[in-house]
Amino acid sequence: MRAWPGWWPAVAAPGAAAFALVLSLLAPLLFERLFNRFWPLPDAELAASLRKLSEQAGVPVRTLLVVDASRRTRKHNAYVSGLGPTRRLVLFDTLLADAPRAALEGVVAHELGHRRYRHVAAGTVLAMLGAAAAMLVLWGALSWQGLLSAVGAAGPGDPRIVPLVLLVCWLLELGALPFGTWLSRRWERAADRFALELTGDGVALEQMHRRLALATLADRDPPRLLYALLVTHPTPPERIAAARARSDT
């Protein structure tokens, strides 16, 4: 802002978008290894079965790993990370220890659905657009001289604007929450449908949702406002009902 007082958004907006992209690319490959320990999936039969499942899903994985999630959580989960030939499937050790084979395959099929529908890529693009848009909104806020005077700042390059910048960004995040959680729930439902189509086992998926709800102590009926603002997944009763309905058809 000090270097380019008149046109800093032209640098900050694409810079923020690029930063969001870099974080999305580096997080699975670099940051995860700073906080977790990984090892190859020891069960060769299960590994072959999951590779076959990933090929049927149209998103074959090269590497299958287990992560030591049990140090921090009881949650059952799996995820696919990496791009192209580096694509890998990571299983929580809690999932391997507690879940029956059919439920485990249901969790993996769900995660493969996210990958098949390019939800991570779409989320990254939205994060990039949101970061760039935030810089433009911030530009508008800092162009208001009365607002700068209220915080005692001489101009956009004054360090005293930092609290104002944080407040604007926080308000933007709060305003985007309903859309973000709605989109997340939509994607979760799509991944659930994909898992059922891939495995054809509605009973196993229903059991999977029950196990996930118990492991995470999920709220079965959250208040509507909380649901709209913070709940990123459909509730367990919603997911179980959807699995039953699709199984019946």
Description of the molecule:
The protein is an alpha+beta fold and 249 residues long. The chain contains 10 helices and 4 strands; from the N terminus they run H-E-H-E-E-E-H-H-H-H-H-H-H-H. The protein has helices spanning 9-35, 44-57, 93-98, 101-116, 119-142, 145-150, 162-199, 202-216, 224-230, 236-248, and strands spanning 38-40, 63-67, 78-81, 88-92. A 4-stranded mixed β-sheet has the order 1-2-4-3, sandwiched between helices. Strand 3 (78-81) and strand 4 form a beta hairpin. The longest helix has 38 residues, at 162-199. The mean pLDDT is 87.
What's the gist of this structure?
By secondary structure, the chain is an alpha+beta fold. The protein is built from 10 helices and 4 strands, in the order αβαβββαααααααα. Helix content is 67%, strand content 7%.
Main β sheet profile: 4 strands, mixed
Query: What percent of residues are in strands?
Result: 5-15%
> Pairing-aware structural class of the strands and helices?
alpha+beta
Q: How many strands? A: 4
Count helical runs. 10
Mean pLDDT level:
87
Q: What pattern of helices and strands is seen along the backbone?
A: HEHEEEHHHHHHHH
Based on CA inertia axes, which overall geometry fits? Answer: elongated
For the terminal residues, how far apart are their CA atoms? Answer: 59 Å
Low-confidence stretches: none
The percent of residues in helical segments reads: 55-70%
